[in-house]
Design a protein that fits this description.
Number of helices of chain B: 7
Radius of gyration of chain B: 41 Å
Mean pLDDT of chain B: 86
Shape of chain A: globular
Number of strands of chain B: 12
Shape of chain B: rod-shaped
CATH class of the largest domain in chain B: Alpha Beta
Structural class of chain A: mainly alpha
Largest sheet of chain A: none
Number of domains of chain A: 1
Order of helices and strands of chain A: HHHHHH
Oligomer: heterodimer
Distance between the termini of chain B: 31 Å
Largest sheet of chain B: 5 strands, antiparallel
Mean pLDDT of chain A: 86
Low-confidence stretches of chain B: 1-10
Distance between the termini of chain A: 19 Å
Chain lengths: ~110, ~400
């Protein structure tokens, strides 16, 4: 928990904080009960490899649907689904790349 | 008698050998491929059995490992220690075949099989995950291959393979014998027939030759003289044949009685003997003879020279020439006759082989020559060109 806090504060206050991911994703997701990391792990478990995860995210953001979401129906009913379509294409792509980079497992196990 | 019979037929003829070799190579190749095939099948089967015996155990290990991966998936990255197990090594790969984490010692990774033996003697068990914990689709488990089964398998292959080879070899010899026996029995029959007939030829033949010698040619007309000459030639030809036949059936095992023989005088004597025969075909002899001594059985040496000269006459053209050159250790006899095809030369020494059926004979002359030549460790060489002539060289 401590490590996550430190990590988050570094991300928040560092000079590099201002990337596509920071700009578009963090603020909105901060208030949700599931962290972006938790959601990422769900994506990873469902989609496996790097390309597959990225394509999966991209597809969901463009064509959100309850039956392909990794979140629970109750959650989706409460929050709705179409939250990502306003982010422009280029920003979205960059944000997804950063999202993967931040949470990927490859190279992090010991 | 029995001894000479079996001796004459036991040695293989060149034509017999050729077909025997063909049969043997075919047989050996077939036998080997069958044994190798069976061994391969057996080996693979043993490997499968070994896999089967380890599969259940590895399956259990994989189940446990996946459970641990699931826990790690939910606590990552707070906890990032990959679960280890002392009973096996493991590694995880994602569905794009990218390595996520691996403790495997073998680099030999195969995504298409569910269990296999690596090149460095490890056993890999592959389990696919339905939920990709930590992004892993493929879980590889690795245990060392103890090799006991392989040792045992090889041992069995050698023992049973060896037994099979012995067994098939015995069968092979049996078949080869069956294969040759018709050839042999026909040779044997011919031998026996010849032996019986020659025996009856001796007396009448000697009578004819002796009486021709005794005829006073001066008292009869020229016309009758010619006829008598023809009878003489015919009788001599038969006599030659008789000599060969008795040699092959009766005398070939009489050894030694070797003496110092002067070949020049012997050749001159034989040419005189063949003179009337040669004249009948207008054949001339061109001689270049040096004195030469050899330690040999005189009768056998005469058979050699007689047979070569009589072939040179028999297969020569009308008005042909026969060149005979005698040096210290070589005798060369060449003719200007019909010659022999190159492919047939290896078989000229086989018994009962005749290439030209227009000439008489049993085809035993050169067979006798060869036997005698071999007995005295001499060398014989035949060079020939069809329609140009044949050259026989004997060295000692």
């Amino acid at each position: 928990m401590v490590r996550i806090l430190v990590f988050v504060s570094i991300v928040l206050f560092s000079s590099h904080a201002d990337d596509a991911y920071e700009r578009n994703c963090i603020k909105c997701h901060e208030v949700l009960p599931f962290s972006l990391r938790e959601i990422f792990m769900r994506y990873l478990a469902a989609y496996g490899g790097e390309n597959n995860v990225k394509v999966g995210l991209n597809h969901y953001f463009k064509y959100p649907a309850k039956d392909i979401s990794v979140m629970s129906i109750a959650f989706l009913n409460h929050y709705g689904i179409d939250h990502h379509s306003k982010i422009n294409e280029k920003e979205l792509k960059q944000a997804i790349d950063i999202y993967w980079q931040k949470h990927k497992v490859i190279g992090r196990l010991k | 008698m029995l001894v000479s019979k079996s001796k004459g037929t036991n040695s293989l003829l060149a034509s017999e050998k050729k077909s025997l070799y063909r049969f043997l190579t075919l047989y050996v190749l077939m036998m080997m491929s069958i044994i190798v095939l069976i061994a391969l099948f057996y080996y693979q089967n043993q490997e499968k059995m070994m896999f089967l015996s380890k599969r259940d155990m590895l399956s259990d290990y994989a189940y446990e490992q996946i459970k641990k991966l699931k826990i790690l998936h939910n606590t990552f990255p707070a906890d990032n220690a990959y679960p280890r197990d002392s009973r096996f090594k493991s590694g995880i790969y994602d569905l794009e075949y990218v390595k996520i984490f691996s403790l495997l010692e073998s680099e030999d990774i195969d995504f298409t099989k569910d269990m296999y033996r690596t090149s460095d003697n490890k056993i890999h068990f592959v389990k696919t995950l339905f939920e990709y914990y930590l992004g892993a689709k493929y879980l590889f488990l690795e245990i060392p291959d103890d090799g006991d089964w392989r040792e045992e398998t090889w041992e069995n292959i050698f023992i049973f393979g060896g037994l099979a080879i012995v067994f098939f070899t015995i069968i092979g010899f049996y078949i080869a014998n069956l294969f040759l026996s018709p050839m042999r029995s026909s040779l044997l029959l011919l031998d026996r027939f010849i032996k019986d007939t020659t025996h009856e030829l001796n007396t009448p033949l000697s009578t004819i030759l002796a009486n021709i010698e005794m005829i006073d040619t001066s008292s009869i007309g020229e016309d009758n003289q010619k006829k008598i000459n023809r009878i003489n030639i015919a009788a001599k030809t038969v006599s030659q044949l008789y000599q060969d036949l008795t040699y092959i059936t009766l005398e070939q095992d009489i050894h030694k009685n070797d003496e110092k023989v002067e070949t020049k005088a012997l050749i001159e004597n034989r040419i005189e003997y063949f003179d009337s025969l040669a004249k009948s075909k207008d054949i001339t002899f061109v001689l270049d003879l040096k004195k030469s001594y050899i330690h040999i059985n005189r009768h056998k040496w005469t058979r050699v020279i007689d047979n070569i000269i009589s072939n040179a006459i028999k297969y020569n053209n009308r008005k042909g020439v026969i060149y005979i050159t005698l040096k210290k250790n070589t005798l060369t006899i060449s003719d200007t006759g019909i010659g022999i095809e190159l492919t047939k030369i290896p078989f000229v020494f086989d018994r009962y082989i005749r290439f030209n059926h227009s000439e008489g004979g049993f085809g035993i002359g050169l067979n006798i020559v060869k036997k005698i030549i071999e007995e005295y460790d001499m060398k014989i060489e035949i060079k020939s060109k069809p329609n140009e002539g044949t050259q026989v060289v004997i060295r000692w």
